[in-house]
Specification:
This protein is mainly α and about 450 residues long. About 75% of the residues lie in helices and about 0% in strands. It starts with 12 loop residues before the first helix and ends with a helix.
């Protein structure tokens, strides 16, 4: 619906002069008889109505407008203003009646029709909205898009598609109308019609990239992968500089076991300024899985991720997991630490970093990082365990016992972790030459192991 600035109501005289169905009132005329007195009162009430509406006193605005109606029932703008006030007061039946009176008294007034149309839409009365907007189409062709939208809402899909075809033919393709089309195709299951429409677009505009991309997507969605692949390759022939097409091509090449071409497309994606980071991450995630099965392409993966991983923790995590699966813990730690710099409060990343410190015997770093972790996560038993292990390895068993005993209180239904705590406590007491205590905790660990 159109945004309207009713400047007409600021200069009231312009609302009423020289129109057959408006009152013949001259607000500039000095009242010198009974008619002049009526004109003067009308003007006074109308100004009062506008003033009260402006300060949101809609009841008082209605009162003033009704006094105007008593003086002259023929003025359409009175009913128009009444309708807007009644709408604000949620008196919808009276609002509709008032808007209809305004339109009946001035059927060629676009503003009145538009307000009535907007009212019907707000009430989800699509049948009446359609009837009203059909009258508005003769004023502005873009009302036809509103009409198509109403056909869609009221499930008159054939009427909507016919109108969308007309608009596309006359004005070209638009994103808004395509959204409507796709909703119709989805609601009706007309995938074949949808694909045929896109195929015609490609034929009609063979150099327009967006048509190919939409067709590739729909072919893929319809499990017509061969057609999608061929369309993507055709687009690349027509437009060798296309970047978006590689979002489809890399996957097709991977499925086709064409690693060289897949890598080429993957690198085109990560270098692109047109492709969003989220899409790049999806490509890299797929490629990480591929390299897991084909480690000979690891250098290509590293090269590609270097282009996008600087401020993307998800990419860094994917790489960390990849190297962890490859049992390259040192390389995995590098990526997890980089990710932790970007998300310092991420529990999962912190956990991976601390466990890798222990595995790689970086005990000073494990102690320092776990100390900080316990300040942020004081109820996480894992961090107490890591801290205790590090302290034992650094030959500080007394401190290890203190932290391990505190951590034990936070363990809930986790026998495996409880066993690890008992083993570390046994080790700490062994370092202190307290064999009795060491045996006590060693026995507790064994007892839990045998019962689980």
């Amino acid at each position: 619906m159109k945004n309207k600035i009713y400047i007409l109501y600021i200069i009231l005289g312009m609302l009423f002069i020289s129109q057959a169905n408006y009152a013949q009132v001259d607000f500039n005329k000095r009242p010198d008889d009974d008619l002049g007195h009526v004109e003067d009162k009308f003007q006074e009430f109308f100004y009062e109505a506008l003033k009260q509406k402006g300060i949101e006193n809609y009841d008082r605005s209605v009162e003033a407008l009704l006094k105007c109606v008593e003086l002259d029932k023929s003025v359409p703008v009175l009913y128009f203003e009444l309708g807007k006030n009644y709408f604000k007061l949620k008196n919808f039946a009276q609002a509709e009646e008032a808007f209809k009176k305004a339109v009946n008294k001035d059927p060629d007034n676009e503003w009145y029709l538009d307000e009535l149309y907007g009212f019907y839409v707000s009430q989800n009365d699509y049948d009446n909205a359609i009837k009203t907007v059909q009258q508005l189409v003769k004023y502005h062709p873009d009302y036809k898009e509103d009409l198509a939208s109403l056909y869609l809402r009221s499930k008159k899909y054939d009427d909507a598609l016919e109108l969308l075809d007309e608009l596309d033919s006359k004005f070209g393709i638009s994103v808004t109308r395509d959204r409507m089309r796709n909703k119709i195709y989805e609601a009706t299951g007309r995938k074949k019609d949808q694909i045929e429409n896109l195929e015609k677009r490609v034929e009609s505009h063979p150099k327009k990239e967006s048509n190919y991309l939409a067709l590739i997507f729909r072919y893929s969605e319809n499990n017509e992968k061969e057609k999608a692949f061929e369309t993507a390759k055709e687009l690349l022939k027509i437009n060798p500089n296309s970047q978006l097409v590689h979002l489809a091509l890399y996957k097709f090449y991977l499925d086709d076991d064409n690693a060289e071409k897949a890598i080429e497309s993957m690198k085109a994606v990560v270098k692109s300024n047109e492709i969003k980071p989220k899409a790049k991450l999806k490509v890299l995630t797929d490629f990480v899985s591929f390299v897991g099965k084909h480690p000979e392409y690891e250098s290509d993966l590293v090269e590609a991720t270097a282009l996008v991983s600087g401020n993307n923790s998800k990419t860094l995590l994917e790489l960390g997991q990849y190297y962890l699966a490859r049992k390259n813990k040192a390389k995995a730690l590098e990526y997890f630490e980089s990710a932790l710099k970007l998300e310092s409060n991420n529990f999962s990343i912190l956990r991976n970093v601390l466990l890798l410190y222990i595995d790689l015997e970086k005990f000073d770093q494990a102690k320092e990082r776990s100390d900080k972790a316990l300040q942020k996560f004081p109820s996480q038993p894992l961090f107490y365990l890591v801290n205790g292990v590090a302290l034992n390895e650094l030959n500080d068993p007394k401190s290890a016992i203190e932290t391990l005993e505190v951590g034990l209180d936070y363990i809930i239904d986790d026998p495996k972790m409880e066993i690890d705590f008992y083993k570390q406590l046994s080790r700490a007491y062994t370092l202190l030459n307290n064999t009795v205590k060491a045996k006590t905790f060693s026995d507790k660990a064994k007892q839990l192991e045998s019962s689980n």
